[in-house]
Amino acid sequence: MGLITGMIVxxxxxxxxxxxxxxxAKNSGRPHDITTFSSDENVLAKVDAWASAHGYRQVRDxxxxxxxxxxxxxxxxxxxxxxxxxxxxxxxxxxxxVNGLILxxxxxxxxxxxIAKVPRSMAKKAQNTLFASxxxxxxx
Length: 140
Prior knowledge:
- This protein has helices spanning 2-26, 43-53, 117-133; strands at residues 33-38, 57-62, 65-70, 79-86, 89-99, 104-107.
- By secondary structure, it is α+β, with helices and mostly antiparallel strands.
- Strand 5 (89-99) and strand 6 form a beta hairpin.
């Protein structure tokens, strides 16, 4: 019975810790990075090709906004890229998400907090590859 109790206490402690991290992410004040630019290229085709090459998959396409996601919250926080098109103007939102099952918080890739540092760094590197292919300044 001691082993089962230990497992329950450990599980509840882990759930509490991840929800504290999600709360910290939610209250960080920097939920995402926004990059805006104009282009006459077929940006969405380039984004689709980039997403496929970097393990992102499109999860939504609503009202001119495509949402791409990498990861499934098992070993690392999921990484997101959202692209909105309005004529030849584009807006790209970049972030990672800390999901504690009870609470959820989004974090900008360029934040300096320790929370989700590895997935934020991975996403920033991959997304800067996309920005370079579009001749747009990358994330710092």
